[in-house]
Design brief:
Low-confidence stretches: 1-7
Number of strands: 0
Order of helices and strands: HHHHHHHHHHHH
Number of helices: 12
Strand content: under 5%
Number of domains: 2
Structural class: mainly alpha
Mean pLDDT: 76
Distance between the termini: 74 Å
Shape: elongated
């Protein structure tokens, strides 16, 4: 009954027989090969050279698996016990590729090297846990086998992805990140920060009621965020433009639009009108300079030109709101 709540009971590695340890090694090599092939499939369209690296790594894992199967057949026969990583306490875990999407090139390279290193360390530690000489020797042999291809990801990377190819792939990944997150997010932050200035400050100076001003700012910010998010997601599915998932772009755009407006709406939760207005103006100043910095940092816009455009435009909108509210 308790297994329903806590799952199946895991066994210590030291409690396994030599046949079970060998079967565990076979299933582990098979899982790793499948993970590497999944990485290759996920990278092939944008990073064909790195995809070839993981195809070769999968082939290497399959070679080790076949050697282990031959050894099992020689010692214990053809029937291999069903035992996997999640049956053994303390065994290294592997996440399938669909749990770690999107597959960033540097992230996948790092995970592959970690997989090889963990396999070597685990077999070495497992050998120290057992006292039986034959079992210790078997685990030691497996550790040495893993050690021989511990740096396989790095070595294959030098063959299939030389420095010039890696540079192109890294630039491709950077461009995709900019198109999917930075560009929509920056557009949302600019729209949310600038477009809500006039209604918020107009309401503030027209009513001098901080609570009413906050409600205007809240509605304007959330409304703009929802509208901008849906517009960004609906107008381009990303297939032809290469701008990535419409859902991710819509979320980035909508959230940053709402945040841009809420930044100078939240100070009006302060009851005192002039204190709230002074703080809101300070927030606007920070927002506009942050936009200029992001444009300079990620979009390679000269900082002075970005600052002039954003601060001047924002200042004009702010002045418009104040003039309308004061009239």
């Amino acid at each position: 009954m308790f297994s329903r709540f806590f799952g199946h009971r895991r066994h210590d590695l030291a409690s396994l027989s030599e046949q079970q340890i060998l079967a565990l090694a076979i299933s582990s090599e098979e899982d790793d090969a499948r993970i590497y092939l999944a990485y290759a499939d996920g990278l092939r369209e944008q990073f064909p050279n790195s995809a070839k690296v993981f195809e070769d790594m999968a082939a290497e894992e399959n070679h080790h698996r076949q050697s282990l199967i031959d050894l099992h057949r020689e010692r214990f026969g053809d029937r291999i016990p069903l035992i996997r990583r999640d049956h053994v306490r303390g065994y290294m875990e592997r996440k399938p590729d669909w749990l770690v999407r999107p597959l960033g090139i540097e992230r996948v390279r790092a995970m592959a090297e970690k997989m090889e290193d963990e396999a070597y360390r685990f077999y070495g530690a497992a050998a120290a846990l057992v006292s039986d000489a034959s079992t210790r020797r078997l685990l030691g042999d497996l550790a040495l086998a893993e050690k021989t291809h511990e740096s396989l990801a790095h070595r294959l990377g030098e063959i299939h992805t030389p420095d010039d190819v890696k540079q192109v792939e890294d630039e491709t990944e950077k461009r995709q990140f900019l198109l999917t997150y930075i560009q929509p997010g920056l557009a949302g932050l600019m729209d949310g920060s600038v477009s809500t200035l006039a209604p918020i400050f107009a309401a503030a100076f027209a009513t001098q009621d901080t609570w009413q001003t906050f409600l205007v700012g809240l509605s304007a910010s959330l409304g703009a965020g929802i509208s901008m998010g849906f517009t960004e997601a609906a107008h381009d599915d990303g297939r032809l433009s290469g701008r990535g998932s419409p859902l991710k772009r819509g979320l980035a755009n909508g959230l940053m639009t709402a945040i841009g407006g809420l930044g100078h709406a939240l100070p009006y939760l302060i009851p005192d009108f002039w204190t709230a207005t002074a703080l809101a103006a300070l927030v606007v100043f920070v927002e506009l300079w942050a936009i200029a910095f992001i444009q300079h940092r990620y979009m390679e816009t000269p900082f002075f030109r970005a600052a002039i455009q954003v601060v001047l435009g924002g200042g004009l909108v702010l002045a418009t709101g104040i003039l309308i509210g004061s009239s």
